[in-house]
Write the structure tokens for this entry.
Amino acid sequence: MRTTVALCITTYNSPNYLEVVLKSVLAQSTLPKEVIIADDGSGESTRLLVEQYKAIFPIPLLHCWHPDEGFRVAKIRNKAILVSQSDYLIFIDGDMALHPHFIRDHTKNYKPQYFTQGSRVLVSKEVSEQRLCSKNIHFYFFSKGITNRINTLSVSWLSQIITPFYGAKDHAGVRSCNLAFWKQDAVAINGFNEDFEGWGREDSEFVVRLLNNGVKRQNLKLGGVGFHIWHPESSKQLLQKNQTLLDEAIIEEKKWCKNGLMK
């Protein structure tokens, strides 16, 4: 049976960013089975944008929403996991314009009992503002205003050779802006820990429990590229609390969280 793939996009009150992301999804050489907008309480403008794109999307575009009660990205990601009908889930943030082969590269590199940390290219503030106005989603190796320039390249055959050997194998440097995993592996650890509120560390803690449960890490290089559109940093006022939750998961070698998918 063919593996099915969902692309899950987290967002909050940023329809101008989300539109750039959705345009880059429409430009994919390989489409996923479904796209799920994991919406952490956005207002009417985001709902209208999603409805507009539903009308032109060739695949299901689902709007998964809950009320705005502060930064609750762990909770809305869990809701997206439950809504998804796919085997393999690729999570990105709503400020990531995707390389045209993003989905193709992820699907060529997935394998059982592994999760995949994708790579990103950082886009400068000036160029980001220009692209948000023009809705130009196309970035190249020589594009202005980008860093991590080598990460712009998508070389499928070489990516499959180097990916198994590249980068950290623990939770270091985990970023959920480009993170993929099997749904069954997420269910086995009860998904994201909803005790995390406010920005930071919920993705690292999720990965720690995956690792503790026998799921290994690979780092997708020269493929699955996302271009991270600049935006002001989120508030980090709850970061210390979240760091404590992460430390507990590491020290206690946790595989499960109580406040997750299944309550």
About this structure: The CA atoms of residues 71 and 198 lie 5 Å apart. The chain has a mean pLDDT of 94. The chain is about 35% helix and 20% strand. The radius of gyration is 17 Å.
